[in-house]
Design a protein that fits this description.
Layout: H1 4-16, H2 20-33, H3 38-50, H4 54-67, H5 72-84, H6 88-101, H7 106-119, H8 125-138, H9 143-156, H10 159-172, H11 177-189, H12 193-206, H13 211-223, H14 227-239, H15 245-255, H16 259-269, H17 277-290, H18 294-303, H19 316-329, H20 333-340, H21 348-365, E1 382-384, H22 394-410, E2 414-416, H23 421-425, E3 438-440, H24 444-451, E4 462-464, H25 478-484, H26 492-505, E5 508-514, H27 518-521, H28 529-539, E6 546-552, H29 569-574, H30 585-595, E7 598-600, H31 606-614, E8 620-625, E9 630-633
Parallel strand pairs: 1-2, 1-4, 3-4, 5-6, 5-7, 7-8
Antiparallel strand pairs: 8-9
Organism: Azospirillum endophyticum
Keywords: TPR repeat
Protein name: Tetratricopeptide repeat protein
């Protein structure tokens, strides 16, 4: 009879040979003889994982660690299983404990880095890059790690470094198709389209039907004005298993004037598993509205059901948004408001349609309406952003607008914009889109470099696509930006009373923004209320009759500030001091943040950071320092060393 050690060696060889049922039989016998054999539990867990029994695998690994907690490879494998189960934080913690036990364990470095890169949020991408770099210090010839490092760097926005990392991958493996494709993506973002197209062609020469590469090649072709070939590439990507390409194909067909073909593709997308259903709903809704087919649109989206999920209401939010959009386009504002009154969501298009409907309803009750101007001479240099109202919500859209307008004004281009919430709320008079512009994808770096003078090859007559944002907010732009973004006088009776009520309660309005909600889902940095409480304890005695206002999407956090008698919009409404602007309360909160005497923002929140940028009166701005777990002063506008 073999010893336990000999039996474990046989079980390991069976595992390597893929004979998993035999592994299970042998390790079970070992554990019957000695239930505390950690290595047998580990092997049994590996067999469970290979056979798709992930919960059982996690239990085996935990049982092994209860016996032998120093086994770094078991902690690493536990982290891998937890990652597959979607338990991101627990998986990362397991990989970190594995590395504490064995700092040279390459699998744990790779597991942690891949996890942070693919499933983490913005705060995790540089940590992922650091882990990939540690692997490269141990194994400097790993082309796959250079490739993964490049992906992490590009996610973080370090595009030049990402391009260099992909080139390093190709130096070690010249035919590495994925690295060629991702190098192409980086070059597109840098505006080097000809080089990018060469990379995509080389990648497809290695793997001719790789759907992701076909899709990315189509993006580059589209950006280069090669719409016909882009349509072919998107269609090939969809045929090769990437149904998300269908909506992009429909977009190109629309640009080409082939709206009937675009409609057919969108209807196909709405019945295809794995396609971009929200995008297809938005695009088909816009197409039907553009053609004046309002009644047909309402019937279709009221009845639409996605056939590939059990819950028939999975896309109800998007469908109701489409129904409301058709009412809005038909001039039936009350119907649009009614459709969305009881609907709650975070989608960009939902936010835009619901907010614009609410604002237009206010004007309609006053016997007024907002009339958008038309570009008097579309033959003159112009730029547009047709996606301005489709990515992100209020602050994201406004911050995109700031970059777009800085760019347009610097090069004397006319800026055209679609209907968007900021265009209704602020005193803006940009003309509606005139159409006929080729797209500029991944334009944020190019526009930032053009606005700041780091490059001088401006691009007129382009449709600049989201996402966009300024990399730095220079003091030299402050007066100009603040002059653009003033609320229209029509809205002041709805937002000013909140600020006036606070001023009646004290002489110094301290406003804090505490963001939760989707920050938890997307793994953005969470601002802990305790940091602000500690800061307020020191600040409060120095202020003249302070009053604390909390703007938050999580009312439960307000109680954390009890010692400062905090108030919120809901509290003011309860006391009869101010009336909530139903459906548009975010504008009332924003107005307070924009006019407070002391303003504290939420980490990584464009909403409160935009309010700080537009606040002309605050004598103190503060922000969370997540690394130090405290609150620190900051300046929303910065003086750049590049400033003349």
């Amino acid at each position: 009879m073999p010893t336990v050690a000999e039996a474990l060696q046989i079980a390991l060889e069976l595992y390597r040979a893929g004979r998993l049922d035999d592994v299970r039989t042998l390790t079970t016998r070992i554990l019957e003889a000695d239930p505390r054999t950690a290595a047998a539990l580990h092997l049994l867990g590996l067999a469970d994982r290979r056979q798709g029994r992930l919960q059982e695998a996690a239990e085996r690994f935990r049982a092994a660690l209860a016996i032998a907690p120093e086994m770094a490879d078991v902690r690493c494998n536990l982290g891998g299983v937890l990652a597959t189960l979607g338990q991101v934080d627990a998986a990362a913690a397991s990989q970190r404990r594995a590395l504490a036990l064995d700092p040279a364990l390459e699998a744990a470095h790779h597991g942690l880095a891949s996890l942070l890169c693919s499933r983490g949020g913005p705060r995790d991408w540089m940590a992922a890059a650091a882990s990939f770099r540690r692997i490269l210090r141990l194994q400097p010839d790993r082309a796959d790690i250079f490739h993964d490092l490049g992906i992490a760097l590009r996610q973080y926005g370090a595009v030049e470094l990402a391009v260099a990392s992909q080139r390093n991958a190709l130096a070690h493996a010249p035919g590495f198709a994925a690295a060629l494709g991702n190098l192409g993506n980086g070059l597109v973002e840098l505006g080097r389209l000809d080089e990018a197209l060469v990379c995509f062609r080389r990648s497809l020469a290695v793997e001719p039907e790789r759907a992701a590469t076909l899709y990315n090649q189509a993006n580059a072709q589209y950006a280069a004005g090669q719409s016909e070939t882009a349509a072919e590439s998107y269609a090939r990507a969809a045929r090769n298993g990437l149904p998300q390409a269908l909506t992009r194909l429909a977009d190109v067909l629309t640009i080409l004037g082939r709206e009937a073909d675009a409609e057919a593709v969108l209807r196909l997308a709405l019945t295809t598993a794995g396609s971009d259903i929200p995008g297809a709903i938005d695009m088909l809704s816009a197409l039907l509205v553009r053609q004046g087919r309002h009644e047909e649109s309402r019937r279709f989206f009221a009845d639409y059901r996605y056939p590939h999920v059990a819950d028939p209401n999975t896309f109800r939010l998007e469908c109701m948004t489409a129904v409301a959009e058709s009412w809005l386009a038909a001039g039936e504002v009350d119907h649009a408001v009614e459709v969305l009154a009881g609907v709650h969501g975070h989608g960009s298009r939902f936010f835009t349609v619901k907010s614009i409907a609410g604002l237009q309803q206010v004007l309609a009750k006053q016997g007024r309406r907002l009339v958008r101007p038309v570009n008097p001479d579309p033959s003159q240099p112009r730029v547009c952003s047709s996606t301005l109202a489709t990515h992100g919500r209020f602050a994201h859209n406004v911050l995109e607008y700031v970059l777009l307008r800085l760019y347009a004004e610097k090069f004397s281009y006319r800026l055209e914009t679609p209907d968007w919430v900021g265009g209704h709320y602020f005193e803006l008079d940009d003309p509606k889109p005139s159409g006929g512009l080729k797209p500029l994808s991944f334009g944020r770096r190019i526009l930032n470099d053009l606005v700041t003078g780091r490059r001088d090859d401006p691009r007129p007559d382009v449709d600049i696509l989201s996402p966009l944002f300024l990399f730095e907010h220079r003091e030299e732009w402050r007066e100009r930006v603040q002059s653009w973004l003033r609320p229209r006088p029509e809205w002041l009776p709805y937002v000013d009373p909140v600020m006036q009520a606070l001023k009646r309660r004290g002489n110094t309005v301290v406003a804090l923004h505490i963001r939760r909600g989707d920050f938890v889902w997307f793994r953005y940095t969470i601002t802990e209320t305790s940091w602000y409480v500690d800061w307020l304890k020191a600040l409060w005695p120095t202020l003249d009759r302070p009053v604390l206002y909390i703007a938050t999407d999580d009312p439960a956090t307000i109680a954390d500030f009890a010692e400062f008698a905090p108030t919120s919009l809901a509290d003011l409404a309860k006391d009869g001091a101010a009336e909530p602007w139903t459906g548009l309360e975010f504008l009332q909160d924003f107005h307070v943040l924009m006019n407070a005497d002391v303003l504290g923002v939420s980490a990584q929140s464009g909403y409160s950071q935009l309010a700080a940028l537009l606040n002309r009166d605050a004598r103190l701005f503060v922000e969370p320092d997540a690394a130090a777990q405290r609150i620190r002063p900051y300046s929303p506008w910065t003086v750049s060393s590049d400033t003349p």
